[in-house]
Write a structure and sequence with these properties.
A two-stranded parallel sheet has the order 1-2. It is globular, with a radius of gyration of 13 Å. The protein is α+β, with helices and mostly antiparallel strands. It has two helices and two strands, in the order βαβα.
Length: 64
């Protein structure tokens, strides 16, 4: 079984720093989290991108 990695995101470095600096200490392990598209419900994993609006690449392109 291959490991699943979190999907890429479309956040800027500045957005990441702002979120991480306000998040406090890590709260346990994030291993085993599943990421799903809010529109189609499909699981999204690296190297795919999960956009800030919660949509996968396919759903994001369909609305463009």
């Amino acid at each position: 079984m291959t490991a699943k990695y979190p999907p890429r995101i479309d956040a800027t470095p500045e957005e990441l720093v702002r979120v991480l600096s306000n998040s406090g200490p890590p709260k346990g392990s994030v291993k085993g989290l599943d990421y799903h598209c809010v529109k189609c419900g499909r699981e999204v994993a690296y190297p795919e991108t999960l956009y800030n609006d919660g949509r996968c690449e396919g759903c994001q392109e369909a609305t463009a």
